[in-house]
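Q: what sequence does this backbone want?
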């Protein structure tokens, strides 16, 4: 006569067999995905491209695709193909502003780009493509390029205004040198 304890051991052994089998299937699936990432769904490719581009930056990885994120990614992928998004991700990863290495324009705390910020609407990707978040020369860089510009008249009201004047001065000098 089998006891309850014997039956429990038998069931536990069968469950362990199934777990081992399931684990081997999961390993085989992972191997297939490593061999051919194109097997991934478009939204998973999008996430993987984001995580690859932003790895090694302060920008957070996307760990989970929620139904809301998937819908937004689908919308973004109708606007441009994945290879253009990969270029956008690279641009974000190389941007000092997007990586929180520069303060905001108002001198506030640094800001970090995020996966949700990018997929939130069509405009954010366009702004990145247009160069809005590209690295800009600092005021010190601009002053070094135009050594006699420190005491320009009339004085600027803000650093932004000053930087624009200095950028125009550099452009004018380059044009003059080119002609």
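A:
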């Amino acid at each position: 006569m089998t006891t309850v304890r014997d039956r429990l051991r038998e069931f536990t052994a069968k469950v362990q067999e199934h777990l081992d089998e399931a684990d081997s299937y999961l390993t085989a699936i992972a191997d297939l995905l490593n061999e051919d990432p194109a097997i991934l769904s478009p939204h998973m490719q999008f996430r993987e491209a984001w995580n690859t581009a932003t790895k090694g930056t302060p920008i957070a990885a996307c760990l989970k695709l929620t139904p809301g994120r998937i819908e937004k990614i689908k919308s973004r992928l109708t606007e441009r193909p994945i290879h253009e998004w990969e270029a956008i991700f690279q641009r974000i990863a190389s941007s000092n502003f997007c990586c929180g290495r520069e303060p905001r324009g108002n001198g506030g705390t640094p800001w970090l780009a995020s996966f949700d910020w990018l997929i939130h609407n069509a405009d954010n990707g366009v702004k990145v493509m247009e160069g809005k978040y590209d690295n800009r020369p600092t005021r010190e860089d601009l002053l070094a390029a135009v050594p006699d510009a420190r005491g320009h008249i009339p004085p600027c009201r803000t650093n932004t205004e000053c930087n624009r004047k200095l950028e125009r001065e550099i452009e004018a000098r380059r044009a003059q040198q080119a002609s």
